[in-house]
């Protein structure tokens, strides 16, 4: 390992990374013209992937498009759980491992595809015994356990619309989502483990459903010894053992229309009211089947795939449940935190289970950097052959650290851009053909047409920066906001009519590669110049003392807005006024004097959700002296008070 170039050297040289010859020789995509071929007949390209699914009735029309409303594979009928389970078992792969699961305390479980099919059918029959049928809504509030994945598939099997709520949301947040969906049944765990502590999930559910008259039953799965709820429960409770355990392992799947709702996933809205993002069946399955196969280069008979996301987020829907399982691959699922009981828990699991593909968030990678190289270096990570990132743009230093320290300099990295609303990956490298540039998501996935426009909506050709848009429909796209079609049109299609606007800015370089700069509300106007917070954050973390950074814009009497930085230091570095000044000048040297932060605040931690995203909105509220509002999605709400003390002390 000592003969590899240093991260600083690689960044200074601006090194690019072509696909390793050994990887490219076996890659699922080896034709460099794949993008052009897909573009020549983009509807036919998507249809070729849909044909890999098992349809009860093939579609009549690939696409009906009446902007902004899309219908994909019109007239086709299929069942989502069949794509993930039955067809693999029928093909003779029932004994292939579907999930290697490990709980945070160290308990283990191995489930084959045949096991998951049997468990899914039991749960489906149990839900039917509670009166759940086609079109009914079911809310799930569970930790990362196989029963969550099986319950998702069970809902799909009987035609019920499911909505997973991350098991970390507060009772009011859960209540609002249940109420908006008018869920008939809530399926929950009594408790779960997190950093050695037992979280009482059932108590949260009991508080939430007290104000939800649509809920007829609460189906409770018991996490196990040492992780019980203290809640006395309610008269609506039904035990898993009573309802599910004795059910038949056979359940005929409902034949669903391609455009029948599959799930609703709530995401935060700027109005404070969560948006219920609606995804349907045929197009969504086609999108996640294709992207899982090509982006992650999945080899079902060889790979152990680990997407570290919780199923409560869209990444877990698309790249834990439906995409990988439709491809029939073996996966690792882990219940707990990456640093419990030690900061090497992830690397211990990679070594133990022989993980070949790791897909995680840039914020997690920056945390690993902060904890130090010694933790991954304790373990044999040689089984890894591909790495991926998801959730937000990754800064070049974190990319390079991930490539060198975790991937040993040999693993391509797929830096993926997409959203809850897009359903699946939209901009990404294809690891067998794409020359990688640290920090760039590179090119749109074949069949996806992205673009850049200026403030007036005029297209930006060639290299340039502007608003990122999607120029035409794609199969995995959201079909609306649950119960609020006007909000769907206003939020995503009104700014640039005829184009989908995700709310992100981006630039495109001379190669045609995209560099996603983050939310346009994370763009500052400093003395008439637009600056991306992501660019300033990348400059800060390129300094050897900085592990993570979050930048916000604050009002400034002369400049309009000025950047303010919150910085998390790497081990071995201490905060000081001298270091703050050094970091300000470092940014000025990297980007220009205009980008120099007005102030640098050293933080013990940054406010993050449990999925690892930095909540810059809370930092803006803190800087403006506003009440910070709901912080139930934070991994550690106490971080805000520490930041407030630091901020007020350095003003």
N/C terminus separation: 44 Å
Strand adjacency order, main sheet: 5-4-17-16-18-19-20
Strand content: 15-25%
Radius of gyration: 24 Å
Total strands: 30
Helix content: 25-40%
Number of helices: 21
pLDDT < 50 stretches = none
- The CATH topology of the largest domain turns out to be Rossmann fold
> How many structural domains can be distinguished in the coordinates?
3
CATH superfamily of the largest domain: ANL, N-terminal domain
What form results from the Cα inertia axes?
A: globular
CATH architecture of the largest domain: 3-Layer(aba) Sandwich
User: Which structural class fits the helix and strand makeup?
Assistant: alpha/beta
For the biggest sheet, the summary is:
7 strands, mixed
Overall average residue pLDDT:
92
CATH class of the largest domain: Alpha Beta
Structure summarized in a few sentences:
This protein has 651 residues and is α/β, with parallel strands linked by helices.
